């Protein structure tokens, strides 16, 4: 007999990771959200949560929704798992609290502030180049050109951009189901996997980067012995593709909404709002998983014990219960701390200040130099299981 007197979560026999739903997830998100606060996704055997309130509960209530089984769809504690544990993202408090505090010291606001000048300087270079060119790809020429330069340089690793992109794609595919996309990326990434393990090791850390500081913190006993390369891997995975995705989506939305672009140009303080609103509308991380620690009730439905639960932030960030006109791009909307693009609770993104600093520097540098940003062809999304990111964004920049 069940101790929880609530009806079972309804079953939805649809694949959130089908080509169609990955290309345009929003109609599926609406069906899932409107059916119930949590629905059982039959093809993959997990519960999907798409409403804002319940997504917040799943993300943060670790007593009922643990991260110990991993933030991906496979349970990393069980045989056959296709991912290995992150020593920060896949621990519950109190163990997580100690690790997070040590990393927070390495990435304190004071430390991040010292990067500002360097970021601003690099942003000016990128912006100057693209405005001179006029017809550009907003992904390759702006978002990637900037992030793949500044982030590895503060992390302190010297790596070819193409390899960072490939390992990032692999990571965000592997958070989802073990489907064809994973197989195809594994095939492409196979030849560089040995290199990938090596490049995370101490001897590859450049002096002064925060990768080196992670190793020094391990020496000081702040982390368990042997976890430093896995921390570096987590930053590598979490910090690059997400920020590229967010900057790309901001450019796309600004180019499609000249009225909103005009508002930002009239008041550059709104650059922050434009970036946050883009993260809300096209959340880079689309879903993260937890595992039920026992039978639980969520929003009036019953979830089975020891089962994966995905909180779909991409859906929660367009939940009409939370947002007025959720499909409208509005750079003045108050979203910071409310949207779920950075998660919520103990695991809320530790790099959000870095992402914001990068976005403000590069978007500011480009916007200061242009009168208009116009779409110059169809934008294409890259098909990745759990990352909403653009592949190509043709733009025309009209100089000021
Ligand atoms: C727009 C850019 C970014 C987005 C959308 C994003 C998104 C997220 C989300 C949703 C989580 C929570 C995961 C969960 O609930 O399980 C998270 C955690 C994390 N993020 Fe970010 N992130 C971004 C940028 C960055 C950057 C630049 C860094 C690198 C410094 C970073 C490092 C991390 C780490 C290490 C965690 C794990 C924190 C923990 O478990 O305590 N992220 N991020």
TrEMBL record:
Protein family (similarity comment): Belongs to the cytochrome P450 family.
PROSITE patterns on file: CYTOCHROME_P450 (PS00086)
Keywords: Heme, Iron, Metal-binding, Monooxygenase, Oxidoreductase
PANTHER family assigned: CYTOCHROME P450 YJIB-RELATED, P450, PUTATIVE (EUROFUNG)-RELATED
Cited InterPro entries: Cyt_P450, Cyt_P450_B, Cyt_P450_CS, Cyt_P450_sf
Domain of life: Bacteria
SUPFAM superfamilies with a match to the protein in the record: Cytochrome P450
Protein name: Cytochrome P450
């Amino acid at each position: 007999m069940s101790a929880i007197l609530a009806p079972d979560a309804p079953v939805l026999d649809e694949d959130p990771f089908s080509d169609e739903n990955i290309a345009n997830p929003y109609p599926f998100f609406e069906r899932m959200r409107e059916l119930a606060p949590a629905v059982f996704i039959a093809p993959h055997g997990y519960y999907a949560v798409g409403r804002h309130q319940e997504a917040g509960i799943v993300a943060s209530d670790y007593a009922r929704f643990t991260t110990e089984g991993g933030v991906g769809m496979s349970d990393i504690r069980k045989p056959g798992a296709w991912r290995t544990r992150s020593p920060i993202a896949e621990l519950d408090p109190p163990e997580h609290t100690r690790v997070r505090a040590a990393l927070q010291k390495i990435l304190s606001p004071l430390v991040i502030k010292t990067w500002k000048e360097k970021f601003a300087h690099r942003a000016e270079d990128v912006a100057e180049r693209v405005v001179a060119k006029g017809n550009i790809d907003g992904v390759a020429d702006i978002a990637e050109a900037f992030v793949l330069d500044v982030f590895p340089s503060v992390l302190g690793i010297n790596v070819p951009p193409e390899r960072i992109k490939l390992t990032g794609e692999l990571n965000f595919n592997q958070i989802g189901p073990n489907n064809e996309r994973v197989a195809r990326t594994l095939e492409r990434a196979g030849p560089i996997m040995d290199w990938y393990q090596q490049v995370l090791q101490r001897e590859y850390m450049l002096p002064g980067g925060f990768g080196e500081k992670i190793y020094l913190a391990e020496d000081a006993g702040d982390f368990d012995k042997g976890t430093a390369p896995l921390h570096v891997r987590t930053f590598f995975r979490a910090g690059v593709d997400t920020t590229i995705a967010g900057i790309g989506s901001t450019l796309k939305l600004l180019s499609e909404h000249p009225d909103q672009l005009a508002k930002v140009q009239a008041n550059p303080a709104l650059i922050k709002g434009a970036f946050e609103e883009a993260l809300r509308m096209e959340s880079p991380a689309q879903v993260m998983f937890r595992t039920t620690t026992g039978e639980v009730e969520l929003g009036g439905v019953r979830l089975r014990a020891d089962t994966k639960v995905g909180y779909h932030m991409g859906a929660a960030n367009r939940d009409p219960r939370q947002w007025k006109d959720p499909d409208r791009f509005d750079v003045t909307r108050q979203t910071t701390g409310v949207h779920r693009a950075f998660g919520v609770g103990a695991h809320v993104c530790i790099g959000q200040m870095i992402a914001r600093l990068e976005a403000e520097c590069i978007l500011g540098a480009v916007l200061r130099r242009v009168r208009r940003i116009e779409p110059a062809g169809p934008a294409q999304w890259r098909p990745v299981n759990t990352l909403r990111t653009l592949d190509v964004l043709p733009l025309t920049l009209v100089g000021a």
